[in-house]
Amino acid sequence: MTGPAASAAGTMSPDKLLEVRGLKVHFSLARRKPFAPAPKVHAVDGVSFDTARGATLGLVGESGSGKTTTALAVMRLAPVTEGNILLNGQEIGPLSGEALRRRRRHMQIIFQDPYSSLNPRLRAGEIVRAPLDQLDVGDRESRDDRVAELFRLVGLRPEQQALFPHQFSGGQRQRIGVARALATQPDLIVCDEPVSALDVAIQAQILNLLRRLQEEFGLTYLFISHDLGVVQYMCDDVAVMYLGQVVEHADRVSLFREPLHPYTNALLSAVPSADPVLRDRASRIRLVGDPPSPIDPPPGCRFASRCPFAEDRCRAEEPALRTVGEGHRVRCHLVSDDGVPPHRASN
């Protein structure tokens, strides 16, 4: 799924909108002792992936896995310690000031919480119009027309432009967030757990809205979620993250049908199913212990302390993210070259 590492000038295939290579985001903490090195949180530690135009890539994992920090770094809302980020063939990692502001119209974000992501002092129409004003998109009359069109696209009435956020339901507030993200006609939209704060019935409405808009406008999504049911519905490809690293990356069908990494297998075993065959076949795998500290990641495989199949080399040698089969990548010593995972080999 990935090609050679991108240079700062970088080239990319025309069917790829976003390329991320060796992305690291490290946060320095206060020194415990004078003159001692400042400890660092390895929030994201060498992540690489591509996102095809018009497709959806899902980033999944437990809380603290680094998926949201990865998305924020792609949006340049979190500091990039190292690595390359190419959007439409242009390296955006080093951009700042006016150059970064101009690129922002091509990438927007839908935040997790529709209650806190909208300015309570602004009317809904002003919220949706704000990116157009801030990024100098169009003239005054065309901006008014654009806002009215966006309200129609997301299923809101024209007169609701005059209302304040507290006068909307949670689902309606998230529709405002979607309209705001669409305002500048971006190439990439980052969806940061966009339905996790909503009721289940409303979740389905927002997910269907996102899919309809993607089909209508050819949008590209980077979709962050811990809900594998949502990921299976929304995403074309899935990257599973654990402690700042991608441990498995495959197309949706391959990953859900035959997970290779023991961590992915454990996550999928916890997904509820209405199908009695699947429910009876797959027993829940309960992981023991907590993930290691991201301040001092252990040597070897970062999942080894919780993996039921771990061997001595797993604790000593860090596995590479390697390709097994056609486009299926996995970070595990115990997956054979022909794609047999340890949980299947042991049966």
Description:
- The protein has 347 residues and is α/β, with parallel strands linked by helices.
- It has a single domain, classed as Rossmann fold, CATH 3.40.50.
- 31% of the residues lie in helices and 21% in strands.
- The protein has twelve helices and twelve strands.
- It has helices at residues 67-74, 97-103, 124-134, 140-153, 170-182, 200-217, 228-234, 252-257, 262-269, 276-281, 312-316, 342-345, and strands at 16-28, 40-52, 56-60, 82-87, 90-91, 107-110, 188-192, 220-225, 237-242, 245-251, 322-324, 328-330.
- An eight-stranded mixed beta sheet has the order 6-7-8-3-9-10-12-11, sandwiched between helices.
- Helix 6 (200-217) links the parallel strand 7 and strand 8.
Give a summary of the structure in a few sentences.
The chain is an alpha/beta fold and 347 residues long.
